[in-house]
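Input sequence (309 aa), recorded before submission:
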Amino acid sequence: MQVTHGTIKPGGGPVALTIGNFDGVHLGHRAMLARLVAKARELKLPSCALTFEPHPREFFAPDAAPARLTRLREKLELIAEAGVQRVHVLRFDARLAAVSAAGFVHEVLAQGLGARWLLVGRDFRFGAKRAGDFALLAEAAPRHGFALEAMPDVRHAGERVSSSAVRAALAAGDLAGAARLLGRAYMMSGRVAHGEKLGRALGYPTANIVLRRRPPLAGIFAVEAELEETHSVLRGVASVGRRPTVKENAPPLLEVHLLDWQGELYGRHLRVRFLGKLRDEEKFDGLDALRSAIGQDVGQAREYFESNG
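Predicted structure, token format:
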């Protein structure tokens, strides 16, 4: 898949296009991408997805923005798995936020990306102050030479599949519910960084992944971790949170203790799939109590894997 970033230069098309934040790439997104790929094949056009970085809500209200479900790298990998040929990552900044709805259609969709067919949801809003909507696109499409199609909502068990619904399930510790909406187990990934080596001192060494944004879940979990280089899958127990026993107001961290495995992971890329929640994060009365709790977590994780194959 071809990935481009930054300012869109005229003459990039023609393409079959869809637009979205695609946070989580859940079942609704996957249905949209499948429709895009199928229509592009029918029209003999390249399939292209337009997404934004950062998320517009992170630009306008960073402190109130929802937790990210996927890092940009993860999102692009999942879009590529759907068979999309091109993705353009458009930086959402003050300049883009000020572009009028008509200007967005003309400069970005028509001239920049060369859209000949466009798929969006009926609730899609765009342009300065979110003034653009599906009706404006429908009016503009013939003048700018592209066909427009509305993507219907995707529902699961009567519930509209959305990134918000996935976040709510993860925040409640309902990993099975989140997996049903995503079509897969929830995953986080990143490169293993050096930490304070506290886990090793306690007898439970961990692979640490720094979380640069607030995660959508917290607590202790049974997980599977995949090493990107070898694709080997290892079972483990993971902590997502701020380690209140160790430090006050620490940044969020993903720590993974791999069961029955020894070796160095520093600098390697790890994909962590969350399978079952064991407990909430707690503040313990000292490191001895923390060591005891981790031992119980490891035991519960082993029981989880014995019960779930």
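Checked by second reader. DSSP finds ten helices and 14 strands in the chain.
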